[in-house]
Amino acid sequence: MTAAPLDPLPTDWQRALAIVAHPDDVEYGAAAAVAAWTAAGKHVAYLLVTRGEAGIDTLAPAEAAVLREREQRASAAVVGVAEVEFLDHADGVVEAGTALRRDLARALRRHRPDLVLTLNHHDTWGPGSWNTPDHRAVGRSVLDAVGDAGNRWIFPELTAEGLEPWAGVRYVAVSGSPSPTHAVGVADTLERGIASLLEHRTYLEALGGGAPEEQARAVYAQATAAAAGRFEGGPAVAFELALGQR
């Protein structure tokens, strides 16, 4: 059976907040779309739930956290993102619960985005490829927090902090989903996405599997393959639209 064509991701928004678990999560494909958005004059900010401190076996967490934060900020700058925030939940053991939902709702009320970007919240990346607990916990909590942010009776302490409810999220786009519905053309920004991932050089070197440049190009070849033949207009990265026009 031929997969259904992917529609263009809506562009009738101005502010986006990308919420992911770790440094480099946005860079595994979505950063090329972020570069296209910022080039079009849209505002994008990043919120990292952890600092990725458990991600490098050869570095102690305290040392890795500093390095990975630095690489993430440099990576974001490549695609035009200046605002990068960290929540300091523990890498590898993120708990999907009210504490995380509250933190995310707080961020949504502060940033007041029209579009929220997150990473695959499904159990797998596809057949035979299990997703990690942090990605599942964060992605699902993002979906919950979008509703929480707009309800003044959930986490009323946020209103007491001066953060009024925000029900203005029109779209939630999920990167890396095994069930994509939409895509963003990245013919003009593919190289910026690759360069953004390459800023995570220490992490890529720790992963092994080839030179960082080779790994980055392989990541984006896979990311654009998900939309190949399903989207007109050249290279594209795919998203599942979890909230909004379907």
- Largest sheet, order of strands side by side? 1-9-10-8-5-2-3-4
Quote the distance from N terminus to C terminus. Answer: 21 Å
What percent of residues adopt helix (DSSP H or I)?
25-40%
What do we call the CATH homologous superfamily? Answer: LmbE-like
CATH topology: Rossmann fold
Biggest sheet layout: 8 strands, mixed
Strand content: 15-25%
Structural class assignment: alpha/beta
Query: Which CATH top level class fits?
Result: Alpha Beta
Shape: globular
CATH architecture: 3-Layer(aba) Sandwich
- Give me the number of helical elements: 8
Could you spell the SSE succession in H and E letters? Answer: EEHEHEHEEEHHEEHHHE
Brief write-up:
It contains eight helices and ten strands.
Which short descriptors sum up this protein?
single chain, 246 residues, alpha/beta, Rossmann fold, eight-stranded mixed beta sheet, two-stranded antiparallel sheet, 8 helices, 10 strands, 18% strand, GlcNAc_PI_deacetylase-related, hydrolase activity, acting on carbon-nitrogen (but not peptide) bonds, in linear amides, LmbE-like_dom_sf, LmbE family N-acetylglucosaminyl deacetylase
Structure in words:
This is LmbE family N-acetylglucosaminyl deacetylase. GO terms for molecular function: hydrolase activity, acting on carbon-nitrogen (but not peptide) bonds, in linear amides. One of its GO terms (biological process) is glycoside metabolic process. The chain has 8 helices and 10 strands. The chain has 246 residues and is α/β, with parallel strands linked by helices. It is globular and about 50 Å long. An 8-stranded mixed beta sheet has the order 1-9-10-8-5-2-3-4, sandwiched between helices. Strands 6-7 form a two-stranded antiparallel sheet.
